[in-house]
Design goal:
Structural class of chain A: alpha/beta
Order of helices and strands of chain A: EHEEEHEHEHEEEEEEHEHH
Number of helices of chain A: 7
Number of strands of chain A: 13
Largest interface: A-B, 82 and 82 residues
Oligomer: homodimer
Strand order of the largest sheet of chain A: 3-4-2-1-5-6-7-13-8
Distance between the termini of chain A: 62 Å
CATH topology of chain A: Stationary-phase Survival Protein Sure Homolog, Chain: A
Shape of chain A: globular
Strand content of chain A: 25-35%
CATH architecture of chain A: 3-Layer(aba) Sandwich
Largest sheet of chain A: 9 strands, mixed
Amino acid sequence: MRILLTNDDGINARGLHSLINELNTIAEIYVVAPRSEQSGTGHSITVFDPIKAIETKIPGIKKGWLVGGTPVDCVKLGTKRLVPEPIDLVVSGINHGSNLGTDVLYSGTVSAATEGVIMGYPAIAVSLDTFDASADFSFAAGFTRRLVAAILQESMPRTTLFNVNLPLLPPEQIKGIRMTKLGTRNYDNLFEERRDPRGNIYYWLGGGVLNEEQDEDSDVYAVEHGYISITPIHLDLTHYGLIKKFSKLSDEYLNNLLRGE
Amino acid sequence: MRILLTNDDGINARGLHSLINELNTIAEIYVVAPRSEQSGTGHSITVFDPIKAIETKIPGIKKGWLVGGTPVDCVKLGTKRLVPEPIDLVVSGINHGSNLGTDVLYSGTVSAATEGVIMGYPAIAVSLDTFDASADFSFAAGFTRRLVAAILQESMPRTTLFNVNLPLLPPEQIKGIRMTKLGTRNYDNLFEERRDPRGNIYYWLGGGVLNEEQDEDSDVYAVEHGYISITPIHLDLTHYGLIKKFSKLSDEYLNNLLRGE
């Protein structure tokens, strides 16, 4: 079995290296990871610039590259050009900080896994709910190994993307695993306004998560209450219900829309 | 009525200016657009750097800013800080080039509209199927005005994101409007390998769209066959079918996954 491992915190992040040491006991690991931190890059790709990929030695893996691009670039370039053999799974993480609710759209970690699915592979994104750089990733990494083994043995579906978030708790305090839906994440005081030395206004993205009522079956609720959250994610963004509704629009209405009255 | 207008081709793009002249006949226009071309930026946001927003004079609009960030930054900053009054709608475009199928994930144009919906506004993304810089945007802009009027008058739903793609055809040759689902877009020869003057390998993203069989109800099929495609898009990425399937997993299975055997 072969795994393409990537992340959005960059190739030196502890979360990524904690995964190597667990996953290399069950599969060959190819690391294709960004040279620098890429948080918030979402599903962006490098369209207008060349992408450098430099082979790098990492103990415990089959081969590794540091890529001057986004997490999605890493997965595209990794699966299409760099990794010389067919892979079985894309793993993205372990991210430093959770990726929950609507925030998954901004997440480089989740977007890398999404790109894995687009390229035709099962994929999981794993995040630990802490920004503490010295946090202990070992339980999260061990859990990821067990989940990956279950996916590769097909006791879990191989055709989808799993977004996994772990609470930062000692293992014995973790209450269980919940299969969840995406919750909501809204922020207040989103932008701070400042002035540069020349008096021009600029903004910093900041803000805190609003403490909103969450559905009990959501990922946000699960992690806040001490559970590991696993959200199955699909890529079909079409709103079929509305297509049905539109089919009732008259030809006259549509013709007016098309040509104007 | 007030419209926040943005795009991913940058504030000087002809597609954006063609829209101003149509939309300002039915609403006040606030332009919040990127300083430079942002194609392929997807749903990325500027997390670690300050964002400059410089007010700029554009004839025919209420107020405008050029923003040193991504299309999603423009919508977030525009709705939360820059535009002094509540808006009714976010319009993104008109993009130079179509945004169809799975490619919507990479699209700054569509992601800006997505961000509009996240911020609580109805939103539409509009793209014209051509990279010809001298293309005629006037019919596409007029059509967008009629569609926007329909949304603002609520003869179309106000709660969703519409992804609109127009074929590059003389108006009289456009066959009609189709409500579509997202199709598929796959590419071959995705990366070109080159060597820099020092002998290091680098890659360019390139490749051509694979000519794949498309479902007749897809956006790709519609635009290829001379129709305007309107795809309603939702943001609920949860795969509910799989959650149901998971509910059959035994406690013993989940406990083994959690703690290891």
